[in-house]
Structures are given as structure tokens and as C-alpha cells.
């Protein structure tokens, strides 16, 4: 067995992805980055990296200057 080290961005990605797939995030409401970063205990930079990755995976939709929405 080997030790796997995950970055904060990877950890945030997995948690948010799991919430999206469990339908805990509504598509009609924008994701509040301040609340997410506080709730996950990460700064905005790793959170934005995770959100961008989720957008590339097709789970989120970003709107310039308006933030991210659940696209699943």
C-alpha cells in the first residue's frame, strides 16, 4: 500500500463532484464561492481550480462575471 497525497484542489474537486452527483447542488442556484471555500476550509485559488476542472468534466457551467452553476 502506498501513501497518496492529494492537493487541496483535488480534495475540493472530489467533495464538490460527489455533492453534484448526489444532487445536493441545485442547477437553478449559483455556487457561492465564498461559502464553499469557507465550508471546505480552502482558499479561493484551489477552489477555483476545482470548479474549473468540474466545468471541463461537464458538471458545472461558468458564466463570465456571474460564477458557476451546476450543469448536471
Automatic annotation (TrEMBL):
Keywords: DNA-binding, Transcription, Transcription regulation. SMART domains: HTH_GNTR. It comes from the Bacteria. Residues 6-72 form the HTH gntR-type domain. The keyword Iron does not apply. Transmembrane segments: none annotated. This is GntR family transcriptional regulator.
Amino acid at each position: 500500500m502506498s501513501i497518496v497525497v492529494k492537493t487541496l484542489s483535488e480534495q475540493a474537486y472530489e467533495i464538490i463532484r460527489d455533492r453534484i452527483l448526489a444532487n445536493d447542488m441545485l442547477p437553478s442556484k449559483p455556487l457561492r464561492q465564498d461559502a464553499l471555500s469557507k465550508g471546505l476550509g480552502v482558499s479561493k485559488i484551489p477552489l477555483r481550480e476545482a470548479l474549473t476542472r468540474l466545468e471541463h468534466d461537464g458538471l458545472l457551467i461558468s458564466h463570465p462575471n456571474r460564477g458557476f452553476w451546476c450543469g448536471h
